[in-house]
Amino acid sequence: AGLGGIGLDTSRELVKRDLKNLVILDRIDNPAAIAELKAINPKVTVTFYPYDVTTPLAETTKLLKTIFAQLKTVDVLINGAGILDDHQIERTIAVNFTGLVNTTTAILDFWDKRKGGPGGVICNIGSVTGFNAIYQVPVYSASKAAVVSFTQYIAKLANITGVTAFTVNPGITKTTLVHKFNSWLDVEPRVAEKLDEHPTQTTLSCAQNFVKAIELNQNGAIWKLDLGTLEPIQWT
User: Fold this and answer.
1) Which of 49, 51, 135, 140 is catalytic?
2) pLDDT band, residue 179 (cuts 50/70/90)
3) All domains of the chain, ordered by start, with CATH?
């Protein structure tokens, strides 16, 4: 999701760099945002494709075929879709984890060096809850822990596949995601307000560190992006 919250600010930061192409896959089209991104740096070709991460693996592969046919090379995949609502158990797991596993699996078709592919880089957006759970939202926290874990194993397979991977894990960031959301079994009816009492960071400072992490491109890194800082977390 490149057009909402942290995603849009990250896209803004990315197009300021020396990119050739930025392809955005999102459920909802936002022509104004696309036009803004194109205007920031006319040297970057910005393309939008409608995509829902909960679509089956075969559909994802089909879309990637179209994108690879058009661009020939794709260097980095950023998996950034996420929802926070512990009433929607299946959808949380589908969007936050299953979708990310599917896009990663699908792109390996094109990147895997065992198939003559060029390799590539996968950047998955986790959350600090992946290693420091907000216990009132165990479904969300566990889905993000799964992202951190899955990405670590993809990173360990890099010598076989040629594909490296790392996670960026934002702390509490001022996005629509945290304005209002449901706790699991309503264990904490005021979960959003309570979260709001904690220090937060802006989507812009998060996005700036996000792009730094992409530029550092460290295989297996678990980056914590909190309160405007970027720091590595040790995996145990």
Assistant:
1) 140
2) confident
3) 5-233 (3.40.50.720)
